[in-house]
Amino acid sequence: MAKSLQEYLAWLDQRSELIWPRPPAPKPLKATPYLKPLSGIRAIVWSIYGTLLRIDGGRLQHLHPQPLRMQIALEKTIEEFNMWHSMSRKPGAPWEYMLQQYKRVLDGERVKPSKRRGDLREVDSIMIWGKLIDRLIRNEYEYDVDTYGQLGDFAEKVAYFFHASLQGVAATDHAVETLRQVAAGGMRQGLLDDGQSFTTEQLLRALRQQAPVRSLGEFMTASATAISTAIGVRKPSPSLFTAGFAPLLRQGMEPNNILYISHRLEDDLAAARKSGVKTALYAADAGSCHVEPAQLRDPDMKPDRLLTDIRQIREILDI
């Protein structure tokens, strides 16, 4: 029977020969936290990449700005899944040919329009790798279906391996401790971010490396999870925020009962506040939180609270 994605990630962790990149150490920001308690908050919605997970640049990349990163990730992916024998024999290194094919499919996905005006279409990495693998299959490529599953499941595992080779992630310091304390304080918690179908499993894996965690259900309300590829649009699309906050509103909450936390201001918190929710900027890393002082004074963008340490959420919630 094919491995589930969670089983596949656990299997990768058992392989000592695999070396994964690490996220860069946080660069402290010159920021003054604003932690005055907020009354009436009943739910916290977290951004993932750059907030609960440390990652270079603060977000998941399809095409890394550093060419060497792309080279290494593609070389590792080609070797891991034995793709080279079914790739066209053209001049140049195998990763260069794969990069050309990857960019072509990526560009084709990026130009497709969104279904609703004002939304920005998200690119599904599983779809990209599914198309690349399908081309290899037409050139007599074979893989272990019993281990990886059918094409869609296999493409998801390849996409995870590629992205994990491209950008290292780690749970933000004190993330598990904080999530548990917020849950113990009677708050519901949700997730809203640009991500892929493997994002929640990637988050769970990182949290487990910090402390024992059974499942995300230990902290999170299952229905209050909005990942961009599942919705089909990315930040700052209104539809993504609507999908993220709607499950909590259906439970009888008002928008101002929800606090949304992210390290991104202009294309994230500023867009979320249009839904009427409260917002908090997580300003702990200069490498991922890019904010100008003028933006913090802009009444249309200014967050309600500012944290420089994830544990400070307890002061805001007074728990």
Question: Shape, please?
Answer: globular
Q: Give the overall pLDDT as a whole number.
A: 95
Q: Using only CA atoms, what is the Rg?
A: 20 Å
* Strand adjacency order, main sheet: 6-5-1-8-9-10
Number of helices: 13
Query: The biggest beta sheet, please?
Result: 6 strands, parallel
Unreliable residue stretches: none
Extended strand count: 10
Question: For the terminal residues, how far apart are their CA atoms?
Answer: 46 Å
Summing up helix and strand content along with how strands pair, one would put the structural category as alpha/beta
Which band does the percent of strand residues land in? 5-15%
Q: In sequence order, what are the helices and strands, one letter per element? A: HEEHHEHHHEHEHEHEHEHEHEH
Helix content: 25-40%
Topology:
Blueprint: H1 5-13, E1 43-46, E2 53-55, H2 67-80, H3 94-110, E3 120-121, H4 125-137, H5 145-148, H6 151-166, E4 169-171, H7 175-184, E5 188-193, H8 199-208, E6 225-227, H9 228-231, E7 233-234, H10 238-249, E8 258-262, H11 265-272, E9 278-282, H12 293-297, E10 305-307, H13 313-317
Parallel strand pairs: 1-5, 1-8, 5-6, 8-9, 9-10
Antiparallel strand pairs: 2-4, 3-7
Helix pairs in contact: 2-3, 2-6, 3-4, 4-6
Question: What does the model show?
Answer:
The protein is an alpha/beta fold and 319 residues long. Helices cover 40% and strands 11% of the residues. The chain is built from 13 helices and ten strands. It has helices spanning 5-13, 67-80, 94-110, 125-137, 145-148, 151-166, 175-184, 199-208, 228-231, 238-249, 265-272, 293-297, 313-317, and strands at residues 43-46, 53-55, 120-121, 169-171, 188-193, 225-227, 233-234, 258-262, 278-282, 305-307. Strand 9, helix 12 and strand 10 (305-307) form a beta-alpha-beta unit. It is globular, with a radius of gyration of 20 Å.
